[in-house]
Amino acid sequence: xxxxxxxxxxxxxxxxxxxxxxxxxxxxxxxxxxxxxxxxxxxxxxxxxxxxxxxxxxxxxxxxxxxxxxxxxxxxxxxxxxxxxxxxxxxxxxxxxxxxxx
Length: 102
Prior knowledge:
Blueprint: E1 3-5, H1 16-20, E2 26-28, E3 33-35, H2 46-49, E4 55-57, H3 67-78
Antiparallel strand pairs: 1-4, 2-3
């Protein structure tokens, strides 16, 4: 199972998790970061790196944030081109309108 990023990341986007990820599977989705479920290798380095405790292994996600598992997965299904880092760079701590509609 992959790791996911939940509500505590909203508006924070510290990016410490991005810096430790050995496979660059964490992407900027506007006001939150998401982990690509097909790229995540389950190394768990992102979890302790997150200063707001927003990263969870899917099966350990708190009940109030379980909907982020599907939101994370659906984001990459709906926006397959988001893996293009030149087109969609990570913006630490910044809030902006994502370049997609919906």
